[in-house]
Amino acid sequence: QAVCVPKHVVFKKISRDKSVAVYMAKRDFVDHCDFVDPVDGVIVIDPAQLKGKKVYVMLSCTFRYGRQDMDVMGVAFRRDLFLVTRQVYPELQDKEKLTHTKIQKKLLKKLGDNAFPFFFEFPDNLPCSVALQPGPSDVGKKCAVEFEVKAFCAEHQDEKIDKQSSVRLSIRKIQFSPENSKVVPVTETTFEFLMSEKPLHIKLSLPKETFYHGEPVKVNVEITNSSSRNVKDISMSVEQVTNVVLYSNDKYVKSVAKEDTTDSVPSGTSLKKDYTLYPLLAYNKDRRGIALDGRLKHEDTNLASSTIVKDEVLKEVQGMLVSYKVVCVSVFYSEVSVELPFRLMHPKPEPGITGVCVCVCVCVCVCVDNLY
User: Which domain of life is it from (predicted)?
Assistant: First the structure.
């Protein structure tokens, strides 16, 4: 459920026994590379329902690589990459020390004496939210890196959590494209063959290094065929490469956009042509193994963004690494291919856009309300 305060949408979820509720102003938290947005919100309790128990809030990052019902011999197909739990009630710190944002202050004022703030900071080495798309017949949890805020009441934090007295709210850690670099990606390869005295030269170039989700990828291809054989059936594609690096070194290579042509380059001639490719999730629905950006319940998402790994962070703790490349394949004596990597990401939002007006907010609340 979502509730409104002026110029904000606030997400709310309450436990089944109504002992504890979570209020959060957002569910997407941005990794800016040099820092990550902190996770903050407000917990509201019902002292009568608590019956003397304490209230805790937990932030977790989990890498799941198998369905829960596949757990065998006590070995779970999941791993907690990050887990921290804090006591919210009874208070261990003054409310003011845990109140870091204006929206927290407004919520505390609005919700009364039984409202308590919480605040977490992400460590530097956590991956962003990402998941492998299941096939149409797959059931249960998918292979994914997931983040969650959980509030619960218990005698102590290590005891088994009662589902009736707990709230779980999925959140996302996301990354926007860094500042546009002036690098223009180019690659060129010369192929020499025993059966031909002269070589085949292929050059690929892109207008920029980073493309945004939904944006067409325009590739310039230059082929100089000095050989004695014709080049034919030029095919262009965008390939998504997903390395599952945490528990094994599985690699998924999926073509997410492709154009097969009958273009040819006869012996002794050259070709210079632009090809346009559209790497969109809309063209890859229900394809098992496609990496997607993490999504909240029932929300649409997109192809996974390229992974940017910070210099000091081990790749092995990232769970899944996603990258993209343009591939040009043509038939010569046999198939020859040339690859050129690029980034696919979300643009950084324009500064100064911090909320929506009250009338729009009401509409958003109605839409968000349907997600729960």
Answer: Eukaryota
- Both 196 and 334 in a single domain? yes
Regarding whether 243 and 146 lie in a shared domain, the answer is: no
Residue 300 placed within a domain: yes
Contact indicator for 2, 365 with CB cutoff of 8 Å: yes
- Are 259 and 328 in contact, with CB atoms under 8 Å apart? no
In the 8-state DSSP scheme, what is residue 55?
A: E
Give the other-Cβ count within 10 Å of 330's Cβ. 25
Last residue of a domain, one of 126, 144, 175: 175
Q: Which two tokens stand for residue 159?
A: 């005891």
194 and 305 part of one domain: yes
120 and 54 share a domain? yes
Q: Quick one: 162 and 310 in the same domain? A: no
How many domains is the chain built from? 2
Query: Closest Cα partner for 231 from 202, 204, 267?
Result: 267
DSSP H helical ranges for 71-167: 95-98, 102-111
Residue 181 domain-assigned (yes or no): no
Count of residues making up the chain: 372
Residue bearing tokens 């919100």: 41
| pLDDT means over runs of 10, the chain (372 residues) | 58 90 90 84 88 90 68 61 89 74 86 90 86 72 86 86 89 84 88 81 94 94 90 93 77 92 92 95 86 74 86 68 93 86 87 36 32 31
- Specify if 3 maps to a domain: no
Residue 265: inside a domain, yes or no? yes
Backbone angles phi, psi at 148, to 5 degrees: -155, 140
Residue 335 and residue 306 in one domain: yes
Distance CA 215, CA 344 (A): 9
Alpha-carbon distance values, 30 to 37, 39, 127, 130, 167 (Å):
5, 10, 11, 14, 23
Distance CA 31, CA 125 (A): 10
3-state secondary structure of 123: coil
Same-domain status, 127 and 82: yes
The answer for 289, left when phi > 0, alpha when psi is -120 to 50, beta otherwise, is left
Enter the pTM of the model.
0.80
Domain extent at residue 43: 11-175
- The sign one gets for the Cα dihedral 223, 224, 225, 227 is negative
Question: How far apart are alpha carbons 326 and 343 in whole angstroms?
Answer: 10
